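Worked example (supplementary).
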Amino acid sequence: MEVKSDFLVIGSGIAGLSFALKAAKFGTVSLVTKREERESATFYAQGGIASVLSAEDSFEAHIKDTIKAGAGLCHPAIVEMVVKDGPSRTLELMELGAHFTKRVVNNVEELDLGKEGGHSKRRIVHAKDMTGQEIEEALLKAAKAEKNITIYENHIAIDLITHSKFVEKLNGDTCWGAYILNKKSGDVHTFLAKGTILATGGAGKVYLFTSNPDIATGDGIAMARRAGASIANMEFIQFHPTCLYHSKAKSFLISEAVRGEGGILRLKDGTPFMANYHPMKDLAPRDIVARAIDFELKKSGADCVYLDITHKDPAFIKTRFPNLYEKCLCFGFDMTKEPIPVVPAAHYICGGVLTNDCGESSIKRLFAIGETACTGLHGANRLASNSLLEAIVFANRTCIKAKELAAKDAAIPGIPAWQTGGAVNSDEAVIISQNWDEVRRFMWNYVGIARSNKRLDRAHRRIENLKAEINEYYWNFTVTSDLLELRNIATVAELIIKCAMMRKESRGLHYNIDYPETDDKNWKRDTII
Ligand code: FAD
Ligand code: SIN
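After joint prediction of all chains, the assembly is encoded as:
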């Protein structure tokens, strides 16, 4: 089957849906998503969206906090553009039907703004502790009502379709869509478009422990890499300091907003420790808090540290964090009465497909938005709650270019249908699970919170071997979504390792014990592959 539309959007999180809704005003949109439509990191976002929406706050303060967290690598013009556009885009979400938590001050209703690490002001717009769910539902409802948008659930993009005709070669490749696997039927379809938008989210599943949902396998970054796009800053992986430590709590995040409301990190004996690491204590930027926990765990040999908010009124805790309270209770912890056991876990990738200020990648007609992109906003470390913001701002900006594409006719070249060649069904699926486990484990152990030259070398050797094995498997057997995701996490792991090996210093989220200092003279720049 061949599907033609003006835009092919891959991903149905905040970035993909926001773009699709805007683009549908001037073109047709095919929106493919590899699971059920709401399954995304967006759906699980807790804290909220950083946005300057109070008289006590200012654009200057938000810009300053973002740049400070980014440790010298933020692109100042991008930071300014995103911060200043943020309030309008956040209000647009409210107009679409997202209800954010309000409070009444002097008989006047206003947004209840939360606080998180690295922010000098209260500026996090939230829907209690379920902000992402509120946003995802509002966007999905609007997208379903839009006649120009067709949603394809359980469709996974395999690879981009790029074309470099002789005349185009001088200026690089052009992207005309993607091959997409219908997971239910097993058929591979050709989706053609004048513009293709990668909105596939992050890559937390590259690591053994992560806050991310299962969809986060870095597919967009891996596809862009295979197509030859520039990829940047992959060494900057953000580890969230506080995921619930419990054998059955897969990926359960305890929002930074808990520390924003006074939560204190303690050792097993009750000693608070963050004052030893940073003047902002528990609300220091995430890299510092995650490294402090890692250091304390390695020093004591303990399995976890504890997050304590029991000094707050139980009624307040239950109202402000209803989801966290209930979930913790299910795992046997009453957060109003006892500290919660927590550990750091891979949470966010600051690097990704390199784009300009309109979401354009280095390949013509290919865009990247949301967590898949590297726009210059986050630099070496993302400020909390700046990613939902980045996604809505860039979805809007990307439409500026997309509108131009839709307005013109495009001679989409003849694209051959997907060829299966001699591929057969695999009877050795165990290779997939074995390799998945292996990649995620050595990435956690060798390319985690603290790195060293030796560990990076080991990881590099391992990934080279595994990639060869995975590629052989890929060419011999018919594709399945597990195999595609394995191939993608291996590609992303390789990119992270390569960028980490290139950067011979420590900065922001990248900490190498062999180069513990920041080297502004040589390394105040992006790492680009
Ligand atoms: P996602 O929302 O992850 O969506 C990606 C989409 O792409 C999914 O629909 C997926 O199925 C689809 N997809 C992926 N690969 C393919 C493929 N090959 N083919 C087809 N479809 C594909 N950020 C904040 O700013 N504030 C917060 O409070 C916050 N809390 C968070 C809490 C948690 C638990 C997590 C995990 C992250 C949090 N973040 C937060 C980060 C933020 O949620 C994400 O960065 C953001 O939601 C990413 O949006 P996205 O649209 O780029 O990707
Ligand atoms: C959180 O709620 O702690 C997550 C916020 C974020 O990742 O921006």
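Two points are worth noting when inspecting this output. The chain has a mean pLDDT of 94. Residues 46-47, 255-257, 384-385, 387 surround succinic acid (ligand 2) (CB under 6 Å).
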